[in-house]
C-alpha cells in the first residue's frame, strides 16, 4: 500500500509538473528559455500605471507586429518607482518603464536606468523645458511625452476677471465671502502636514528657493535654500495668508477636499494641475486657466514642471529593443496623442502638441501657466525636502513663527542630506 | 470562594486532538487520496522551485530544498514518528514565515542596504560606466542595420552603418570599421542597409533575440567607439568614466579625477570626500545600531514618544476592552429584547475595512469641513493640536476596536456557567460583587492573552497613526517628531522619509522595537500564568 501510494504520488507529481511546465511556456511566450521556442522573436516588457498601460496597448501591439517582436504591457497600479527599483535589482524588472521625471536621481543612483542617445533632430522636437527636466548630470535619461504644472483654475461665474496678483485674488475672494457666494478665498491644498508641491509657486514668488544651481544649470544639493533669510522672508509672506492672517491658506483644505470644494462652488479659485479638469468639467463649472498670480511686487510665481517619461531599464533583458522603442517610436507624435487622449496633459512633443491644441483650448493655457515653470528637482536629495518643508508650511499656515519654523526645517533637511 | 471555581470548561483551550490509529490499513480511501495529492503537491512545488535555484546557481538553497522535501516524504510515508507528523507542517510554516524573515531582517541590519546601495560592486561599476557614455561632440549619427556573416541566430554580429550625408556604408565589429563598396550594398532612402554582399541583414525580430550582444558591441574608432542606440541608429560614444582595477578606482577620462573604492561605505569616494551616486551593498557591522543609540534625533524625543506609545497602546486596548465588555455584559442579560439585532449592529464597524474607515475619520475631524465640528457646532482644530489629536486617534481606535472586544467577551461570557453567578447571589452577593468577584476573574483568564496580543499589535499600529494624523501635529521647530507619533511611525520617517529608503537602518530600528515589545509581552505573559494558577 505504501509503495503504491508513493508510486501514485510520483505519477501525480509528473502530471502536475507537466501542467506547470505547459503553463510556464505559455506565460513566457516565445521568449522562454526553451531553445526550441527561441527561434521566433524577442520580447519587450513595458511597465506603466493603469491608465497609461491601457493607452499604450494598441501602440505596443502595432510596434510588435510592425517589427516582428512580442510586446507586453504590464500595469503597475501602486508604488511604481519602488516596485521598479526592487524588481530591477532582482532581475525581474521590465525593459521600458513609464514614470515621472523626478525619479531620475534615485533611479540613477540605484543603477536602474540607462541614458538614451537622441539625435539632434529628435531633441529639437521635444519642448525645451521637458528635455531639460530629463537631463541629469549632463545625460538625457529618458524620452518625455507629457508635461504637467500647476495653474490657477478660476470659476468664471464667481470671478469673471483673472487676478493679476495674490492680493487681487484675496480681495476678490473676501468680497465673495462677504456676499455669501463662497466660503473660502482660495482652494490650495495644505493639510496637516503641508504640501510643498502646491506651495512652491507662492514660495518662489515670495523669493524662496529649494536648491541653487551649479554653473551647468543642474541643481546643487550643497546650496540649500530652505532656512536662508530669503526663505524666512518668503514664509513671512505666506504666514500673512495663513490662519492667523487673512485665512487664504488653511490646513483644513487638503488633497482630498480641495478639488471637491472648488467643484462645490465654495471657492472661486483652485490651484491645481491638469488632473483636476476632469472633475471640474464633470461638475459643469465654467472655468478658465491662468498662471498662478505672484505677490504684488514679488518675483514670478513658478510652479514645478513635472514630465512624464519613458525610461530604458538598465537591467532589462532586451535593451536594444527597448532603446529602439523609446528613442525611435516614442518620439513619434501618434503615441503622444493617444496618451494625451488617455489623460489630458500637454504633450511634450511639439508636433503632438500642435496636433491636439486645436481641439483643446485648455492646452495652450496650461502651457502659458507653465511658461515660468522650473523642472521638479530630480536629484536624490530632493527626497529630504518634501516632508520637513511641508510640515513647516503647515505650521506657518497654522500661525507658528516663520523664522523659527523654517530654520528648523532647514536644519532637518541639511541633516538628512549629509547623513 | 474563587479558588474552588474554574475547571476545564472555563478555559479557552483547543479540544484535544483525536489520536489517529497508526495502522495505515485502517485508513479510508479518501484520506489516502488526500495524502497522495498533498505529497504530490509538495514534490511538484519543490521541483517548480528548483528551476530558478538551478538557474541562479543557488546550490545551498537547492540542497536545503531537496533535504526538506526528502524529509517530508520520508516522514509521511513511514508509519513511525507520529508526533512529528503533527508538528512538521506548523514548524515548516513557522520557519518560512517567522524565523526566516526575522533572521533576514537581523542580517540586513548589519548592512547599508538601501537606495544607492542595493547591488554588488560589479553592478555599481557597470552602472557608472554605462551612465557616463556620451556622444562625441560633433560626431556623425549613423543609420544602423544589424547584420551577420553567419547564421542569423548565432553568427558573429556586424554593424552596417550609413553616413547620412555621404551615404557611404561601413561594416564594423569589435575589430574595427572598414568601408564597403557602394556596389555591394542596397541602401534605402532613409539610409538603412537592406542587403549587402557577404552579410545577412537581421530583421528586428531576429536582432531583438540578440539584444545583449548588440548592446555590448562597441566598434572601436579614433576617440571613442560606435555603439548602437536601439536597432536602427548608431552613434559615436565615449565613456566619460572608466573603472581601473589597478587602483580600484573610477577615473574621469577628461579631467583625470579619480574616485577610489571604499569598502567600508560601499561607494567610490573622491579626494574631497564626494561620492559617486552609484554605490554597493557592504556590511557595516554595528554602525546602524550605534546610529540608533547615538543619533540625537532619536534619543532626544525618544522618551516622549515611548511614553505616548504606551499611552496609545494601553489606551487603545484598555478603552476598547472596557467598552466592549460593558456592551457584552449588558447584552448578555436575557432580559434584553432583540439581542441578536444589537449584536449584529455592534459588529458592523468591525466588518468595515479599517483602512478606509481611518481615512473617513480623518476627514470627519477636519476643522472646517469635518462632520464632527459641523455636527456639534464646535470649532476645534482636532488634528492641529497635540492634546485633541491624541484624543482623536484614541477615539478612532475605540470605535474601530470595541466590536472585537465585544465579540470575544461575549464568547467568553457564554462559556462561564450561569450557576456560578446564581450561587454567589444565593450566598448574598450583589450584582456588582458577583460580577467583580466571579465573572470578571474568569473572563480575565480567557481574555488576558488576547489583551496582550492586542497591546502588542497596537504598540506597532502603524496605520492607525499614519492614515489619520501622519504622526502630527508637529511642533514648528521639530518636523521630525510629532505629538501622535508612535515609535514605528517615527522611525519609518527616519528610515524612509529623509534620503530615500535605508533598509539596513530600518532593520536595526525594528530590532530595537522588537526588543521593547518582546520584553513587555514576556513580562505580561509571565504574570498571566501566575494569574491562571490562582484562578484555574
Automatic annotation (TrEMBL), chain A:
<keyword id="KW-0762">Sugar transport</keyword>
<feature type="signal peptide">
    <location>
        <begin position="1"/>
        <end position="20"/>
    </location>
</feature>
<keyword id="KW-0813">Transport</keyword>
<dbReference type="Pfam" id="PF13416">
    <property type="entry name" value="SBP_bac_8"/>
</dbReference>
<comment type="similarity">
    <text>Belongs to the bacterial solute-binding protein 1 family.</text>
</comment>
<dbReference type="InterPro" id="IPR006059">
    <property type="entry name" value="SBP"/>
</dbReference>
<protein>
    <submittedName>
        <fullName>Extracellular solute-binding protein</fullName>
    </submittedName>
</protein>
<dbReference type="InterPro" id="IPR006060">
    <property type="entry name" value="Maltose/Cyclodextrin-bd"/>
</dbReference>
<keyword id="KW-0732">Signal</keyword>
From TrEMBL, chain B:
<keyword id="KW-0813">Transport</keyword>
<keyword id="KW-0472">Membrane</keyword>
<feature type="transmembrane region" description="Helical">
    <location>
        <begin position="33"/>
        <end position="51"/>
    </location>
</feature>
<feature type="domain" description="ABC transmembrane type-1">
    <location>
        <begin position="306"/>
        <end position="524"/>
    </location>
</feature>
<protein>
    <recommendedName>
        <fullName>Maltose/maltodextrin transport system permease protein</fullName>
    </recommendedName>
</protein>
<dbReference type="InterPro" id="IPR035906">
    <property type="entry name" value="MetI-like_sf"/>
</dbReference>
<feature type="transmembrane region" description="Helical">
    <location>
        <begin position="57"/>
        <end position="77"/>
    </location>
</feature>
<comment type="function">
    <text>Part of the ABC transporter complex MalEFGK involved in maltose/maltodextrin import. Probably responsible for the translocation of the substrate across the membrane.</text>
</comment>
<feature type="transmembrane region" description="Helical">
    <location>
        <begin position="306"/>
        <end position="329"/>
    </location>
</feature>
<feature type="transmembrane region" description="Helical">
    <location>
        <begin position="86"/>
        <end position="104"/>
    </location>
</feature>
<dbReference type="Pfam" id="PF16296">
    <property type="entry name" value="TM_PBP2_N"/>
</dbReference>
<keyword id="KW-0762">Sugar transport</keyword>
<dbReference type="Pfam" id="PF00528">
    <property type="entry name" value="BPD_transp_1"/>
</dbReference>
<feature type="transmembrane region" description="Helical">
    <location>
        <begin position="438"/>
        <end position="457"/>
    </location>
</feature>
<dbReference type="InterPro" id="IPR000515">
    <property type="entry name" value="MetI-like"/>
</dbReference>
<comment type="similarity">
    <text>Belongs to the binding-protein-dependent transport system permease family. MalFG subfamily.</text>
</comment>
<keyword id="KW-1133">Transmembrane helix</keyword>
<keyword id="KW-0812">Transmembrane</keyword>
<feature type="transmembrane region" description="Helical">
    <location>
        <begin position="503"/>
        <end position="525"/>
    </location>
</feature>
<keyword id="KW-1003">Cell membrane</keyword>
<dbReference type="InterPro" id="IPR032550">
    <property type="entry name" value="TM_PBP2_N"/>
</dbReference>
<feature type="region of interest" description="Disordered">
    <location>
        <begin position="1"/>
        <end position="24"/>
    </location>
</feature>
Amino acid at each position: 500500500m505504501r509503495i503504491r501510494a508513493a508510486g501514485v504520488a510520483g505519477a501525480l507529481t509528473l502530471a502536475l509538473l507537466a501542467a506547470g511546465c505547459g503553463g510556464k511556456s505559455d506565460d513566457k511566450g516565445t521568449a522562454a528559455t526553451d531553445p526550441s521556442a527561441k527561434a521566433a522573436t524577442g520580447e519587450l516588457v513595458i511597465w506603466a500605471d493603469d491608465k497609461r498601460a491601457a493607452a499604450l496597448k494598441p501602440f505596443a501591439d502595432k510596434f510588435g507586429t510592425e517589427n516582428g517582436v512580442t510586446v507586453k504591457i504590464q500595469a503597475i497600479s501602486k508604488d511604481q518607482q519602488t516596485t521598479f527599483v526592487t524588481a530591477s535589482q532582482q532581475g525581474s524588472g521590465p525593459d521600458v518603464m513609464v514614470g515621472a521625471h523626478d525619479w531620475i536621481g534615485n533611479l540613477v543612483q540605484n543603477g536602474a536606468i540607462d541614458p538614451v542617445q537622441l539625435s539632434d533632430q529628435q531633441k529639437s522636437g521635444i519642448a525645451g523645458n521637458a528635455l531639460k527636466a530629463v537631463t541629469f548630470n549632463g545625460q538625457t535619461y529618458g524620452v518625455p511625452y507629457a508635461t504637467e504644472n500647476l495653474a490657477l483654475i478660476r470659476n468664471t461665474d464667481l470671478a469673471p476677471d483673472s487676478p493679476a496678483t495674490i492680493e487681487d485674488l484675496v480681495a476678490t475672494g473676501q468680497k465673495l465671502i462677504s456676499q455669501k457666494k463662497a466660503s473660502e478665498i482660495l482652494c490650495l491644498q495644505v493639510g496637516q502636514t503641508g504640501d510643498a508641491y502646491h506651495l512652491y509657486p507662492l514660495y518662489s514668488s515670495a523669493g524662496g528657493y529649494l536648491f541653487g544651481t551649479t554653473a551647468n544649470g543642474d541643481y546643487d544639493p550643497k546650496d540649500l535654500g530652505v532656512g536662508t533669510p530669503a526663505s524666512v522672508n518668503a514664509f513671512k509672506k505666506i504666514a500673512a495668508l495663513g490662519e492667523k492672517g487673512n485665512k487664504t491658506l488653511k490646513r483644513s483644505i487638503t488633497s482630498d477636499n480641495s478639488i471637491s470644494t472648488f467643484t462645490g462652488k465654495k471657492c472661486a479659485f483652485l490651484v491645481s494641475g491638469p488632473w483636476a479638469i476632469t472633475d471640474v468639467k464633470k461638475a459643469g463649472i465654467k472655468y478658465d486657466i491662468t498662471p498662478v498670480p505672484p505677490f504684488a511686487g514679488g518675483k514670478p510665481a513658478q510652479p514645478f514642471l513635472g514630465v512624464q517619461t519613458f525610461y530604458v531599464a538598465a537591467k532589462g533583458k532586451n535593451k536594444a529593443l527597448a532603446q529602439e522603442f523609446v528613442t525611435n517610436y516614442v518620439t513619434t507624435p501618434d503615441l503622444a496623442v493617444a496618451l494625451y487622449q488617455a489623460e489630458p496633459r500637454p504633450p511634450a512633443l511639439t508636433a503632438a502638441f500642435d496636433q491636439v491644441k486645436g481641439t483643446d483650448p485648455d492646452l495652450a493655457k496650461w502651457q502659458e501657466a507653465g511658461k515660468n515653470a522650473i523642472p521638479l528637482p530630480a536629484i536624490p536629495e530632493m527626497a529630504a525636502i518634501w516632508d520637513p518643508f511641508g510640515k513647516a508650511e503647515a505650521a506657518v499656515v497654522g500661525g507658528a513663527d516663520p523664522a523659527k519654523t523654517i530654520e528648523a526645517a532647514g536644519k532637518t533637511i541639511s541633516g538628512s542630506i549629509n547623513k | 470562594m474563587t479558588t474552588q471555581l474554574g475547571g476545564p470548561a472555563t478555559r479557552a483551550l483547543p479540544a484535544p486532538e483525536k489520536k489517529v490509529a497508526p495502522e495505515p490499513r485502517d485508513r479510508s480511501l479518501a484520506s489516502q487520496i488526500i495524502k497522495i495529492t498533498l505529497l504530490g503537491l509538495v514534490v511538484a512545488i519543490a521541483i517548480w522551485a528548483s528551476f530558478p535555484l538551478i538557474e541562479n546557481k543557488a546550490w545551498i538553497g537547492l540542497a536545503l530544498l531537496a533535504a526538506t522535501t526528502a524529509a517530508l516524504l520520508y516522514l509521511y510515508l513511514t508509519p513511525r514518528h507520529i508526533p512529528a507528523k503533527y508538528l512538521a507542517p506548523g514548524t515548516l510554516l513557522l520557519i518560512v514565515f517567522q524565523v526566516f524573515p526575522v533572521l533576514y531582517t537581523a542580517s540586513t541590519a548589519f548592512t547599508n542596504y538601501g537606495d544607492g546601495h542595493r547591488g554588488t560592486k560589479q553592478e555599481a561599476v557597470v552602472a557608472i560606466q554605462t551612465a557616463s557614455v556620451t556622444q562625441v561632440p560633433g560626431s556623425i549619427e549613423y543609420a544602423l542595420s544589424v547584420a551577420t556573416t553567419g547564421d542569423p541566430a548565432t553568427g558573429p554580429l556586424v554593424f552596417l552603418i550609413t553616413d547620412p550625408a555621404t551615404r557611404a556604408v561601413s561594416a564594423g565589429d569589435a575589430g574595427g570599421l572598414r568601408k564597403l563598396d557602394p556596389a555591394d550594398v542596397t541602401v534605402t532612402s532613409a539610409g538603412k542597409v537592406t542587403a549587402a554582399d557577404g552579410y545577412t541583414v537581421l530583421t528586428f525580430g531576429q536582432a531583438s533575440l540578440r539584444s545583449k550582444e548588440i548592446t555590448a558591441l562597441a566598434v572601436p574608432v579614433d576617440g571613442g567607439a560606435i555603439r548602437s542606440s536601439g536597432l536602427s541608429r548608431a552613434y559615436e560614444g565615449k565613456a566619460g568614466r572608466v573603472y581601473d582595477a589597478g587602483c580600484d578606482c573610477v577615473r574621469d577620462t577628461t579631467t583625470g579625477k579619480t574616485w577610489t573604492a571604499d569598502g567600508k561605505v560601499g561607494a567610490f569616494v573622491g579626494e574631497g570626500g564626494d561620492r559617486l551616486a552609484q554605490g554597493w551593498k557592504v556590511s557595516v557591522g554595528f554602525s546602524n545600531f550605534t546610529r540608533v543609540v547615538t543619533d540625537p534625533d532619536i534619543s532626544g524625543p525618544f522618551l516622549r514618544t515611548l511614553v505616548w506609545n504606551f499611552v496609545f497602546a494601553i489606551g487603545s486596548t484598555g478603552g476598547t476592552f472596557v467598552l466592549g465588555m460593558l456592551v457584552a455584559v449588558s447584552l448578555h442579560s436575557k432580559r434584553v429584547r432583540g439581542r441578536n439585532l444589537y449584536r449584529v449592529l455592534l459588529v458592523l464597524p468591525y466588518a468595515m475595512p479599517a483602512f478606509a474607515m481611518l481615512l473617513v475619520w480623518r476627514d470627519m475631524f477636519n476643522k472646517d469641513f469635518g462632520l464632527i465640528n459641523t455636527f456639534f457646532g464646535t470649532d476645534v482644530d482636532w488634528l492641529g493640536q497635540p492634546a485633541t489629536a491624541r484624543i482623536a486617534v484614541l477615539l478612532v481606535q475605540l470605535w474601530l476596536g470595541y466590536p472585537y472586544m465585544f465579540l470575544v467577551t461575549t464568547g467568553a461570557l457564554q462559556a462561564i456557567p450561569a450557576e456560578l453567578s446564581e450561587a454567589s447571589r444565593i450566598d448574598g452577593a450583589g450584582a456588582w460583587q458577583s460580577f467583580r468577584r466571579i465573572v470578571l476573574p474568569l473572563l480575565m483568564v480567557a481574555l488576558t492573552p488576547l489583551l496582550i496580543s492586542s497591546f502588542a499589535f497596537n504598540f506597532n499600529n502603524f496605520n492607525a497613526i499614519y492614515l489619520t494624523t501622519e504622526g502630527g501635529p508637529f511642533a514648528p521647530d521639530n518636523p521630525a517628531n510629532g505629538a501622535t507619533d508612535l515609535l514605528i511611525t517615527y522611525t519609518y520617517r527616519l528610515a524612509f522619509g529623509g534620503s530615500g529608503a535605508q533598509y539596513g537602518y530600518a532593520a536595526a530600528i525594528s530590532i530595537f522595537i522588537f526588543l521593547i515589545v518582546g520584553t513587555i509581552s514576556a513580562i505580561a505573559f509571565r504574570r498571566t500564568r501566575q494569574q491562571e494558577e490562582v484562578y484555574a
